[in-house]
Amino acid sequence: MDATDVTDLYQEFGDERLPPGQRETTEFPVLSKSGTPDWDPETWEFTVTGAVEEELTFSWAEFRELPSVTQQQDFHCVTGWSKFDCPFTGVSFPEIAERAGVDDDAVHVMFSGLDGYTTDLPLEDCMREEVLFAWAFDGEALPADHGGPLRVVTPHKYAYKGAKWVDGVEFLTESQRGYWERRGYSQTANPWKEQRYS
Ligand SMILES: Nc1nc2c(c(=O)[nH]1)N[C@H]1C(S)=C(S)[C@@H](COP(=O)(O)O)O[C@H]1N2
Ligand SMILES: [Mo]
């Protein structure tokens, strides 16, 4: 598999690949606020709503036909572990944004998942090729407990910014807070600045 190695993106943010206060693990722990939700490939829908020229809906089959990329990425959990070299395959955030046509007054983004989870990011932090709607890990369908069928990955942010079981992205003209952000976690979540809490 041809993976683009994007693990050097840390150079934009800090001197060390491992952000401060993190330790490297080769495990891939599961962190979910509640259980793993069921999904049905026949009825699953992915929606793009809010401050866009055209709101979009994709079936699972339609989503899988979108152009995809495979990247080797690092994964930083705010609880202190980092996993290097995760091979994720999926559709980039800019690819989706371009199809919807983002309004000039959009400044923020809210992602939502099938378990009721939400997480938010400034729009400019999402408009990067490394922000993926990922459906495969290491060439295999993304495991359900890691967010399969589809999750977001944000290698430049703590991993709570990556909504598992993602089925909606909303473009916002004002900042709003997601699940953990309402509970005191950082809206910007830069691991090299240790933006864990707000
Ligand atoms: N839908 C959803 N997405 C989520 C979560 C969640 O509880 N629900 N937990 C977040 C947190 S806190 C982390 S660290 C990562 C963990 O991803 P993993 O379980 O694949 O390691 O998913 C994030 N995305
Ligand atoms: Mo987390």
Automatic annotation (TrEMBL):
Pfam families: Oxidored_molyb (PF00174). InterPro entries: OxRdtase_Mopterin-bd_dom (IPR000572), OxRdtase_Mopterin-bd_sf (IPR036374). Residues 1-39 are annotated as: Disordered. Residues 35-180 form the Oxidoreductase molybdopterin-binding domain. This is Sulfite oxidase. It comes from Natrinema saccharevitans.
